[in-house]
Structures are given as C-alpha cells and as structure tokens.
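From: lab user (bench 3)
To: helpdesk
Subject: output format question, protein + zinc ion

Hello, I'm new to running complex predictions and I'm not sure whether the block I got back is the full result or only part of it. Here's what I submitted:
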Amino acid sequence: MSCTFDLEHYGELLDSISAGGYRYATFEAEPEAGAVLLRHDVDLSLDAALRLARLERERDATATYFLMTESVFYNLDSEHGRATLEELRDLGHSVGLHAVYPRASRDDRFDAVVAWHNPDREYVHEPVSGFVNVMQPPWFTKGRYRSDSNQHWREGCPHEELASGDFEWLQLLVHPEIWVYEGASMGDTMRAMLDAKQAEWLEQLVDDRIDLT
Ligand SMILES: [Zn+2]
Ligand SMILES: [Zn+2]
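Helpdesk reply: Thanks, we reran it on our side. This is the complete output you should expect:
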C-alpha cells in the first residue's frame, strides 16, 4: 500500500479505521477511547468536500466539515454553497465553522464547534466563547492528532497504526482538496484543482449570461 494523496488511499485510510475497531465521533463531546474524530478543514473547494463526503457515506464514515464564511475561494452564501451545506447534512456529516481569527460568530448553519484557519501559536489552543475549539484540550492531545497539511504527514500516515488499533483515540485532520485532485506534488495538485475550477467558472459565466463568443 502506498501512502499517496488520492481517493484510493483515502478509502484505504477509512478501511483502516474500521479494521482497528474505531467508531466515528463528533467534537461535541469530549473524546473517548475508541473514537476517531474525523475533521475536514475546507479551505479551497466545496466540490472536493462533497466528493469526500459521498465517499465517506459509502463506507459508513462520518466527519465534521469545517466551512468558511470568509473564503476567497468559495461562497457559502451562493446557491452552490447552500446546496453543499444541505448535502453534507443529508449525508449524515456534521458542520462546524472554519473561522479566521479573531472573528467567530455562529449562526444556525454551524454546530457549536470551531477550527481556526491557519492559526498562530498564541491562540490556537485557547478556548473560544460559545464554541468547542477543536484544538483545545482534551480534543487536541499530543500523540492523538494527525494532520495532512500540504500533503505532508508530520508524524507519518496513520493508516497502519489505525488498522492495528494503536491510538487510544485520534483526531484526524484531512484537507479534501489535496486528496480529490491528483498530482505528484502539492503544486501539481493545486494546478489540477485550478483546471477544474476554470471549467466550473466557464459554466458559471454562461449561466450568468456572459457572451463568451
Ligand atoms: Zn497510508
Ligand atoms: Zn484552513
């Protein structure tokens, strides 16, 4: 098995969660033994989030999707944004707020859980009024956290340890875009995402009655 950032290995990662006997939990209660808190920070693409969400549904996996209200890459208030929120909920996933410090204001689209986008050390683990901050203890506990940032697992891809049940519990942060779009490097993966976005935007322009002739 090779630890590539693609949907095939993402499926294998989910299989290893089942093989290790773990169950999926949300951030609304403190983590318990045997739990996997599967977290997706959606930084760049709602389409990538939906692709992952559907794949998880096929494998009876549930995750919390953290969505931004101030992204320059997508608009949660657009028709596509609203449809994405609805489909994520319909698929059985939870939705939290992926906020830009210091602004964290909650509305009924989000559960009372927040993950800061690109947080600084000074506040990353601090409690946030009205929310569970996913990086505050005990939700964040050293040795029970893995993240795939920029296609790099700082402590290694956890699939083997998950399959053999090595973690008492684990918070697993996966960024959908870097698995859904293919490329041999993070740069190539991002360029593949931009190609997909260009095709979507051309359709949007037509829908917007723009003459592309
Ligand atoms: Zn792996
Ligand atoms: Zn982020």
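A quick orientation on your result: Residues 3, 9, 157, 159 surround zinc ion (ligand 1) (CB under 6 Å). Let us know if anything else is unclear.
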